[in-house]
Write a structure and sequence with these properties.
CATH class of the largest domain: Alpha Beta
Number of helices: 7
Structural class: alpha/beta
Shape: elongated
CATH topology of the largest domain: Rossmann fold
Radius of gyration: 23 Å
CATH superfamily of the largest domain: Response regulator
Number of strands: 17
Number of domains: 2
Distance between the termini: 53 Å
Strand order of the largest sheet: 2-1-3-6-7
Helix content: 25-40%
Order of helices and strands: EHEHEEEHEHEHEEEEEHEEEEEH
């Protein structure tokens, strides 16, 4: 597992590295960091499977990194001299919470837990990939959607629409709560280009199966079967009408 050690004490980082090299041969230490800022940069650059995270850092609290850790799908083991944060650590789905000085057997157990979590994530994504490869027509059947706290396998036919929120996309499955995913709408437009989705507006991608009608008034807009109004950009109207024309008289 690719791993980053985040601790502001160089001696503590070195001690942990020695233990990991001796006890956990599948751990590959790819970077170290001594602050919130350097840790964030290292995670973005190296995309580790696991981080060992101290809580007291010179520019903040280790928990400040949790939103980014979750967004990147990284597993975390806290290693700290403070025992009062244990409950908070497990609330954010930490693999484990170890106190300094680290006990070797506890370290091994923590790494085993993290390894199982990583393997489960990989298995989930593999199953979705296999389901997609089983499609004979080359079209995708499922999407793997990683939110801050879960991984969802969603049938593409159950996705009503997608909405851009900067570098994130909010995905609306039918009869379920929306899911926020850290991929852009442009990426999903490419992924779903052969799955019956149209992009009537820069901020919206919709499943044509869930479109009720196109209303020409007020510049033009789509009405979804659930009543949601989706604007149609002026520059998108011509291509949308051409797309609709393909289905003229087929229903």
């Amino acid at each position: 597992m690719k791993t980053i050690i985040i601790d502001d004490e160089a001696q503590a980082r070195e001690s942990l590295k020695r233990m990991l090299n001796t006890l956990c041969r599948d751990i590959e230490i790819i970077a170290e960091a001594g602050s919130i800022r350097s840790a964030s940069e290292a995670m973005q650059e190296h995309a580790p499977d696991l981080v060992f995270l101290d809580i007291s850092l010179p520019d903040g609290n280790g928990f400040d990194l949790i939103p980014e850790i979750n967004r990147l799908g990284i597993k975390v083991i806290f290693i700290t001299a403070h025992d009062e944060y244990a409950v908070q650590a497990f609330k954010v789905s930490a693999a484990d919470y170890l106190l300094k000085p680290v006990d070797p057997s506890e370290l091994c157990n923590a790494v085993k837990k993290a390894r199982l979590m990583v393997e489960n994530d990989h298995l989930t994504m593999l199953n979705a990939l296999i389901a997609n490869l089983d499609k004979q027509d080359g079209e995708l059947s499922k999407l793997v959607l990683k939110t801050s706290d879960s991984i969802f396998i969603v049938d593409i036919s159950d996705i009503v629409r997608l909405e851009s929120e900067g570098n994130y996309t909010r995905i609306f499955p039918v009869n379920k709560k929306p899911l926020m995913v850290s991929r852009t709408l442009k990426e999903y437009e490419e992924i779903l280009k052969n799955s019956g989705f149209i992009r009537p507006h820069n901020s919206h991608l919709v499943n044509f199966d869930y479109v009720s009608r196109f209303d020409r008034s007020d510049g033009g807009y789509l009405v979804m079967k659930d009543g949601k109004i989706i604007p149609v950009a002026v520059r998108k109207k011509e291509s949308l009408l051409a797309y609709l024309e393909k289905f003229s008289g087929t229903i």
